[in-house]
Amino acid sequence: MKKTAISAALAASALAFSAAAQAAPVTYKADPTHTFVTYETIHKGMSTNRGRFEETQASIVLDRAKKTGSVEVRIKADSVETGVDALDDHLEGPDFFDVKKFPEVSFKGDKFTFDAKGGVKTVTGELSMVGKSHPVTLTAERFACNTNPVSKLETCGGDFTTTIKRDQWGMKYALQYPGMSPDVRLLIQVEAEQVAPAEAAHQH
């Protein structure tokens, strides 16, 4: 009987420790091979112009028990790729991202909403580029977490979207022409792996 009581106490302690660990904030670092930002905008009212930023870094902190979090996304502005060199050069110039003056685009958010299962639904923060910052809300089209079978660490990821008006950031090029919309749809695909506690503490 005594051994049974001790075993039960140990099991309860283990469960309590596990619950506490799960409740603590967890830091995730984005996998650069699975994290990209893509944009879409209507061109001349006819077709959709698309491009992708190839160099994106992201760090996420989630506390799903308390339903809180924070995220920082940093995008190298001159990593934009459209498949057309002349267009890439134009996007990097003063009419758009002006990468020599403003080499980085960033998003910082700390207002999260979660669904009943603890999945992220929305993230609200500030999108900063070409020297201007405006509030933006990213909406999750999907979000999931699972254990990476190789690293044995938890990985969370999803697709997040929003639509912005580029002229808010001073990008007014060609908007005077018919069919040129200021609306730009952004899609952020991200997969981020849990950072070891010691490394996470060092980062903060």
Could you describe the 3D structure shown?
- This protein is of the alpha+beta class.
- It has a single domain, classed as Lipid/polyisoprenoid-binding, YceI-like (Lipocalin).
- It is 18% helix and 49% strand.
- The chain has an eight-stranded antiparallel β-barrel.
- The longest helix is centred in the first third of the chain and has 22 residues, at 2-23.
- It is elongated.
- It starts with a helix and ends with a helix.
- Residues 5-21 have low confidence and may be disordered.
CATH fold-level topology:
Lipocalin
Q: Give the termini distance in whole angstroms.
A: 47 Å
Query: CATH H-level name... which superfamily?
Result: Lipid/polyisoprenoid-binding, YceI-like
What share of residues are in beta strands?
A: over 45%
Pick out the low-confidence regions.
5-21
What is the approximate shape? elongated
Q: Please name the CATH architecture.
A: Beta Barrel
Order of helices and strands: HEEEEEEHEEEEEH
pLDDT averaged residue by residue: 88
In total, how many beta strands?
Answer: 11
The structural class is alpha+beta
Strand order of the largest sheet: 1-4-5-7-8-9-10-11
Q: What's the Cα radius of gyration?
A: 21 Å
Helix content: 10-25%
